[in-house]
């Protein structure tokens, strides 16, 4: 590569690439790559698990066994990636690794952050049902049931009835 090509390669911004880790070693790969000075992104979400009738929350990768690494095509040394503990391979199509668009990484980060936000609903708050057979009715938020469902008190035929609905069908009343 000539000096002119090298200087133009150094001026191009680094791109994100997809890296596959060995099974259940994404965090290990992330840690080892960061120690080598690479910029790595492992999108994680908080998931509620039940074990022995107890609920607890745990951080899990959004894409199991995959993480993103930022590399500059002709400047960064790609050879240490293959021998890094936890790393299986750089995902490529044919012989060429394909760069991931920065906007996609930003969208993934925004989605992971939105999933990590706690529920804005508090017990006793009035909510409006947006979809389904109860669409348009007003209800009282009772409790969350996991990440995707809510328990509501709905007044039907002059009685309060408990109903469980998907969280995306409910919004806080104005």
From TrEMBL:
Tell me one GO molecular function of this protein: transcription antitermination factor activity, DNA binding
Domain (NusG-like N-terminal): give its ranges.
13-112
Q: So where does this one cross the membrane?
A: none
Transcription regulation is among the record's keywords: yes
Respond yes or no to whether keyword Repressor is given for this record. no
Q: Any idea what job this protein has? A: Enhances distal genes transcription elongation in a specialized subset of operons that encode extracytoplasmic components.
Entry's family note = Belongs to the RfaH family.
Which PANTHER family does this chain map to?
RHO-INTERACTING TRANSCRIPTION TERMINATION FACTOR NUSG, TRANSCRIPTION ANTITERMINATION PROTEIN RFAH
Assembly, per entry:
Interacts with both the nontemplate DNA and the RNA polymerase (RNAP).
Q: What is this protein called?
A: Transcription antitermination protein RfaH
Say which species the protein is native to: Thiohalocapsa marina
Tell me the name of the encoding gene: rfaH
